[in-house]
Amino acid sequence: MESYKHFYSERKHKDTMIPYQLQTLCRSEREPESLQYFLNTLNSENTRDDEKAAYIHVPFCDSICTFCYFPKTLKKGGEVENYLRALKLEIEMYAKTRYISTSKFGALYFGGGTPTSLSSEQLTDLLLCCKESFNFSENAEITVEGSTFNSDEKKLKKILEKGANRLSFGVQTFNDSTRKLLNLQDDASHVIHVIKTACELGCDNVDIDLMCNLPGQTIKDWKKDLQTAIDLEVKSVCIYELTVHPNTKLAKQLQTGEIPPIGSVDFEIDMYLEAVDTLTEADYKQQHITYFTLPKSDHKYVRISIKDDCVGMGSGSAGNIEKYTYSNNRSLDKYIEIINNGKFPIGSGLILSKKTEMEKFMVRGMSLLSINKGEFSRRFGKVPEDVFTDTIAKLKRKGLITVDKQEIKLTRMGRVWGFNVCAEFLPKEYKEILKKISLMQTKKEEETIAQKHIGK
Ligand code: SF4
């Protein structure tokens, strides 16, 4: 194995990086000044032709996976109905604004939580509400994320009939004993059955998430998971390395030794490279640090939301419109209360400065494996090397990126350390916030876990 290791003391993961990307800076309370900017933007006409994306957050799950740290809640009848009523009101509030009514949407994404934990009727009702509220382009991509556990043929058929054309299943692994250990509710044969059913129903864009470096998982197990995905001919595969978040059930189980340990960082890197090589050999093209697609498949939502506006709706969702980046209130009760008072449920927001926009461009662009220097210059009137001189020189020297006249690209080694490379373009104060977040009151717990299981 080539030496790709030890470029950084720790590997930053998508799930710790992305949600906080530039959003964390604005996790303070609603600032009247920035909120006014947001409202003014919504009241103005959108004069750009670029397609926009929309994200709808469904925070409910039928059960809680042991590793999960996402904003989610166990499903309870009345709460779901109240939430969906508020969510539809929020969608309609956006739809009435001048900015949204003069925008074209190329992608809509229902994420969670588990959107498929909703009933067929609830899901189709939401889909229809979105279709009536936003102007979608002809080839718009509409994704419903979910679990195979609560996706039966009837539900899939209904949501596909009402316009969903991409299904994304959080499979994680096809190994039954590991599935049990993670509290995933169905077994591999059911997972495979649901994926096949989705394809037979005519969905030609089925995506799955797979996780590596799971407790007790060997390279052989990982290869088997990758091969099963390839055999199923899913159009795209997203690879996540397990991140052990403090205060999750998994963290406690690892700490007490109740479950087998996870592998070291070196082992995790071997698994990542195994995925890159196996999927590439099977004709998948790497589009993102974690994301691989078969030829002619696309994931418009990622392409658009990384570079352009993404209107985030639902509790805890994040969005950005023009220069404004925001996060909605995370508390379900507060979210519902604010909407019922006729206001946008922004929990925190920030107007991006030109400098921050350039950083965002670099961070997000690098996660898509390369930066087009011409595009950067057209937007900001400078080439990236003029702005990020030292960072680019350092990354080039380390062999993590290559730079030519047109592009800045992640090397193979750079992809291994992709999220660390992205983080290099963040401002210093932001890096400190990230550090603080990862050290929150749970520092001790994290350290113990790291010493016990990660450093092996
Ligand atoms: S289904 Fe997704 S959001 Fe829900 S607990 Fe599992 S990982 Fe978390």
Description of the molecule:
The chain has 456 residues and is an alpha/beta fold. The protein folds into 2 domains: 14-306, pyruvate-formate lyase- activating enzyme, CATH 3.80.30.20; 354-451, Orthogonal Bundle (Arc Repressor Mutant, subunit A). The protein is built from 21 helices and 17 strands. The chain has helices spanning 14-17, 32-43, 77-95, 98-101, 120-133, 153-161, 176-181, 188-200, 219-231, 249-256, 265-281, 300-307, 332-340, 354-367, 373-380, 384-387, 389-397, 412-416, 418-424, 428-439, 443-454; strands at residues 52-58, 60-61, 73-74, 104-112, 135-146, 166-172, 206-212, 236-241, 285-286, 291-293, 310-313, 318-321, 324-328, 346-351, 370-372, 401-403, 407-410. The strands form 4 sheets. It has a 9-stranded mixed sheet, sandwiched between helices. Strands 12-13-14 form a 3-stranded antiparallel sheet, with helices on one face. Helix 6 (153-161) links the parallel strand 5 and strand 6 (166-172). Helix 5 (120-133) runs parallel beside helix 6 (153-161) and helix 9 packs parallel to helix 11. The radius of gyration is 21 Å and the shape is globular. It starts with 13 loop residues before the first helix and ends with a helix. Residues 18-30 and 439-456 have low confidence and may be disordered. The chain binds iron/sulfur cluster. Iron/sulfur cluster (SF4) is lined by residues 61, 64-65, 68, 70, 72, 112-114, 147, 170. Iron/sulfur cluster is lined by residues 61, 64-65, 68, 70, 72, 112-114, 147, 170.
